[in-house]
Amino acid sequence: MRIDQSSSLLPEVKRGKKIRIVVDGSFLDAFEGETVAAVLLAAGVIKFRLTREHRHPRGVYCGMGVCYECLVRVDGVDNVRACMTPVVDGMNVETCREVEL
Amino acid sequence: MTETFQLAVIGGGPAGMEAAITAAEAGVTVIIIDNFPSLGGQYYKPLPDEFGARKKTKTEREAEVLFKMVKGLPITQVHGALVWGLFPDEKQGGWLVAVHGEGAPKKVHVQAVVLATGAYDTPVAFPGWTLPGVLTAGAALTLVKTQRVAPGRRALVVGTGPLLLSAAAHLIDAGVQVPAVCEASRPFFKAIPYAFTALGQLGRIEEGIKYASKMASARTPYKMGWSIVEARGTERVEEAVITRLDSAYRPVEGSEQTIAVDTVVTGFHLIPNTGLARMIGCEFEYCQEKGGWVPLRDKTMQSSQPGVYIAGDGAGIGGAEMARLEGRMAGLAAAVQVGGITQGEAGGVYGRLKSELKHQRGYARMLGALFTPRPGLTALAKDDTLICRCEEITLGEIRSAVAAGARTLGEVKMITRTGMGNCQGRMCEHGVTNAIVAALTAEKATHQQVGMYSIRPPLHPLPVDVLADAAEELD
Ligand code: FES
Question: Per the count of CB atoms within 10 A, which of B176, B247, B391, B421 is most buried?
Answer without folding.
Answer: B176
